[in-house]
Amino acid sequence: MKKVVCILVILFTVSVGFVFAEWPPFKPSIGVGVKYLPYWTNVSGSVPVLTADFTETRQDFGVFGFFDLTYLQIDLGYTFKAESSGTGDISGFDAGGLYSLYDDGNKYGYLDMGLLLKLPFTLGPFTLFPAAGISYRLNLYAQDNDGNDIKDDMSSDQKSSLNQFWIKAGLGMDINLGKTFYLRPMALLGYKIRSTQESDFYDDAKDIDDDASLYTIGLDLSVSAGFRF
Questions:
Q1: Distances from the Cα of 46 to the Cαs of 86, 92, 96, 195, 216, in angstroms?
Q2: Which of 46, 75, 203, 215 has its CA 20 to 30 A from that of 177?
Q3: What does the pLDDT look like over 132-175, one tens digit per residue?
Q4: Distances 210 to 93, 198, 200 between C-alpha atoms, Å
Q5: Which of these, 82, 79, 83, 102, lies nearest to 215 by C-alpha position?
Q6: 3-state DSSP assignment of residue 207
Q7: Residue 90 phi/psi, 5° resolution?
Q8: pLDDT tier for residue 96 given thresholds of 50, 70 and 90
Q9: Beta-carbon neighbour count of residue 9 at 10 Å?
């Protein structure tokens, strides 16, 4: 029901924009901002070496800079895990395996690269835009609670599974402060593509347990300040 409401709100906003708005002129801009990135991973199912019934709630924060081409935004930043908590259990697997990806005692940092397509329209002092795109978070470090590098005991597949590829869509707004400066709040809903390790677990689990599931959804909430050339 919530997904349907979100889709209807986005469609209504876009429709209003097409009817009443002015299309903004092409003006490149640059800016910097901060992000709050909560997301939720659900893992459930059984395979011969692992039984999982687990949900992790994780909160990441980040800083970023962006280059905006009116209908395209390119951003680059740094994100890190601030806090996480989980309910349920993952058992029957070594500590360097799947559980380490969701262990709330670990620390992670990422190089965050994003690309967004935008459809802006101007309504008075505001510029609204639906947006959709992708982001890739390249893992820079992964440490346990004592500061030890947990990647030392990981295979290449396990290391690559620390990286994250997201598909996102949502709404943003430019609050124009004169002709050159603006503030940009934005809210995106994201779905993380399964890593190789997650996909292997999911495929094996589905062969044994039809009710198995593994998915990650999240929010990308940001506020930034921009300068138009």
A1: 18, 10, 18, 18, 18
A2: 75
A3: 999 999 999 999 888 889 888 888 888 888 999 999 999 999 99
A4: 21, 16, 15
A5: 102
A6: helix
A7: -125, 125
A8: very low
A9: 11
